[in-house]
Design goal:
Blueprint lengths: L5 E2 L2 E2 L1 E5 L2 E3 L4 H13 L4 E6 L1 H7 L3 H9 L2 E4 L2 H9 L12 H15 L2 E6 L2 H14 L4 E5 L10 H13 L3 E5 L4 H9 L7 E3 L5 H6 L7 H5 L3 H8 L1 H26 L5 E3 L4
Parallel strand pairs: 5-6, 5-10, 7-8, 7-9, 9-10
Antiparallel strand pairs: 1-2, 3-4, 3-11
Length: about 270
């Protein structure tokens, strides 16, 4: 298998397979990355990939363009860990980092470091409830939220007011959780105008879990790659296509891609400004 290396605790390698470009990291390494981006005011967009985003990328050229422009992309899905191993990379469970696990240690560090955090997404009620829960856990945490149900069209009055509010708050960390691909499209359209050194563009339903608006899968299920089954049980109408139909499409693409690419997948140092 191809080796993965690290420098100063942060993975410095880019891996490519199945049309994806990824920088695999553990949760601790991702936290160090965010800390570096804030400390050095990097203007980074940090995204993630899972099986759903792979499917969407093959259907939305605009989403492929977004991923080609982001600063870093980590793995959010055990299925991609398995695919990476199939293509010859020594990926492990620790390389799967999901916001359901990452939010608490990230907010703990934000509180102790004095970061200003802004979360965009979820319903207004759920976002405020999640923020209040985090403030109770970490009393020094500076966090503001805004619901994700608004007119996100470029130039709309609601979108302009939101950008003004974010920039007035001047967050160190902006978290965008409005579901794929809406959250990525919004980030792509507005990132150049946002006063935030680090943007987590693919937060998804993390704050819905915190607020209890959506049942949170047990963490052991995520490590075993069974989180999807828990989510499907609780939201069958919304998630049936994602978890039952989309994987067959991805499997077909894999059968076409793997014979051609298994011997040519590259590993090269990542170079980010």
């Amino acid at each position: 298998m191809k080796a993965l290396s690290s420098v100063s605790g942060i993975s410095t390698e880019t891996i490519r397979f199945f049309g994806l470009t990824l920088q695999p990291r553990s949760l601790q390494q991702m936290t160090l990355l965010v800390e570096e981006g804030i400390r050095e005011r990097r203007n980074w967009i940090i995204a993630n990939h899972n099986l759903h985003s792979v499917y969407l990328c093959h259907r939305h050229p605009r989403l492929r363009d977004f991923y080609s422009q982001v600063s870093w992309t980590h793995i959010d899905g055990m299925s991609l860990v398995a695919l990476g191993r199939l293509y010859g990379y020594p990926l492990q469970r620790e390389h799967r980092v999901t916001l359901a696990d990452w939010t608490y240690p990230l907010m703990e560090l934000a509180a102790s470091s004095g970061w200003r955090v802004f979360h965009l997404g979820s319903s207004k009620t759920a976002a405020e409830k999640a923020a209040e829960k985090l403030r109770q856990l970490y009393p020094t945490l500076q966090i503001e939220v805004s619901g994700g149900y608004f007119d996100a069209n470029h130039g709309s009055s609601e979108n302009e007011a939101l950008i003004e509010r974010i920039n007035a708050y001047a967050p160190d960390l902006l978290m965008v959780g409005m579901g794929m691909p809406r959250q990525e499209f919004w980030t792509q359209e507005n990132s150049a105008r946002l006063n935030a050194p680090v943007i987590l563009s693919s937060v998804g339903a993390a704050f819905d879990y915190l607020a209890g608006a959506v049942p949170s899968p047990p963490r052991w299920a995520g490590q075993l790659g069974l989180e999807w089954l828990f989510r499907l049980k609780h939201e069958p109408n919304r998630l049936f296509t994602r978890y039952i139909i989309e994987p067959w499409y991805v499997l077909l693409m894999l059968l076409l891609d793997y014979p051609r690419r298994r011997d040519t997948a590259g590993l090269e140092p990542v170079a980010k400004n």
